[in-house]
Amino acid sequence: MDLIVPSQALILWQLIMVAYLGFWMYALIDCLKNEFRGPNQKLIWVLLILFAPIMGTFLYLSMSQSSKVKRKFDPDFMRLKNDKTT
């Protein structure tokens, strides 16, 4: 039965869609977890990712690094040391 056997084009298309879905999920989760400099930038990026998925995903992944707030690594090791001695 030749109708059940998938062609190579179908398998390639499915692999591309799975890869794109991974990029889309990564962009959406990354956007929701990060803080942005402007008050409405997160909302704009989320709407762009949701309502223009192909263009919005790749625009976010390529352009959002400049608008994110840089995280500061400032652990308080003295507090941890004091907690263990009491």
UniProtKB/TrEMBL annotation:
Pfam families registered for this protein in UniProt: PLDc_N
Source superkingdom: Bacteria
Entry keyword Iron-sulfur: no
Residue intervals of the Cardiolipin synthase N-terminal domain: 23-61
InterPro entries: CLS_N
Membrane topology: Multi-pass membrane protein
Keyword Cell membrane carried by entry: yes
Any one Gene Ontology cellular component term annotated for this protein: plasma membrane
Record keywords, A-Z: Cell membrane, Membrane, Transmembrane, Transmembrane helix
Subcellular location(s) of the protein: Cell membrane
Protein name per UniProt: Cardiolipin synthase N-terminal domain-containing protein
Natural source organism: Algoriphagus sanaruensis
